[in-house]
Amino acid sequence: MAETDGELARRLAIETGRLLVRVRPGDGDLTAQIFLAAQLKQHRPDDAVLSEEAPDDPSRLTADRVWIIDPLDGSREYAEPGRTDWAVHVALWERGDLVAGAVAVPAQSHAPRARRDRRIRIVVSRTRPPAFAQRVAEALDAVLVPMGSAGAKTMAVVRGEADAYLHAGGMYEWDSAAPVFVARAAGLHASRADGRPLVYNQPDPWLPDLLICRPELAGVLA
Predict the structure, then answer these.
(1) Keywords for this entry (predicted)?
(2) Would you say the pTM of this structure is higher than 0.90?
(3) 117-160 residue pLDDT tens
(4) Contacts with 6 (C-beta within 8 Å, 6 or more apart), sequence order
(5) What is the pLDDT of residues 110-124, one digit of tens each?
(6) Strands 121-125, 97-104: parallel, antiparallel or unpaired by DSSP?
(7) What's the CATH fold of domain 5-104?
(8) Which of 53, 61, 88, 113 has its CA 20 to 30 A from that of 143?
(9) Closest by alpha carbon to 43, among 80, 15, 79?
C-alpha cells in the first residue's frame, strides 16, 4: 500500500535526520537537500517543492500541492559539536493550507526533560531573540530559554518542556511550515505573533514573526 502524505513526511524527516547524524559535521545542508529532493521526485513527482536549499520555482504558485522543506534547520547548531537543537522539516501545503508535516530532532532524546519549576517558559532564538520578549517575560514572570532551530523550539513546546515559542525579526516559510503543522496536530496554538493567521506558499516566502503556545496562553501572548 502506498504511503499517505503524512507517513511520507514522517519517514523522510526521520531518514534525513539519520543521514545527517551519520555525515555530521560534513555538509549537512547539501546532503540532506539531495536526499529529500530525490525522494520527493520519486514518490511525489507531480508535486512542487519549496526548499531553503534550492532555487525557488515560480510554478509552485499555481500548483495544488507544494512540499515546503528545510533539509537542515539550525545549520549553525549542527556545526557546533554536542549541540542537539537542530532539526529536519518536511511539510505539505495543499490548496491553501498545511495538510501534512513532520519535524525530526535526531540528536535529541525523545524523553521529555524534567522541569525544575512551573514558571512559564518561552523559547526564543539563541542568536536573534525578539526585543519585546524580555518585556513579555517580565510581565508574566516567565523564563526565556534560548534555543537554536525553530523545529527544536517547537518540539520543546510539544513535549511540554516549554510553554511557548515566540519569534520576531523574520523567518521563511520553510522555517515554520512543518513545526506549525506538528504544533497544531498536538493541539497547540500557532499564528503570527499578533494572532493573525499564518499563510503559506506566497510569492515572497518571508514571514515576519511566529507564535506557538499552549492554547490558554494565546490570548495573553498574541
Answers:
(1) Hydrolase
(2) yes
(3) 789 999 999 988 888 899 999 999 999 999 999 999 999 999 99
(4) 100, 101, 102
(5) 777 777 778 999 999
(6) unpaired
(7) Fructose-1,6-Bisphosphatase; Chain A, domain 1 (3.30.540)
(8) 88
(9) 15
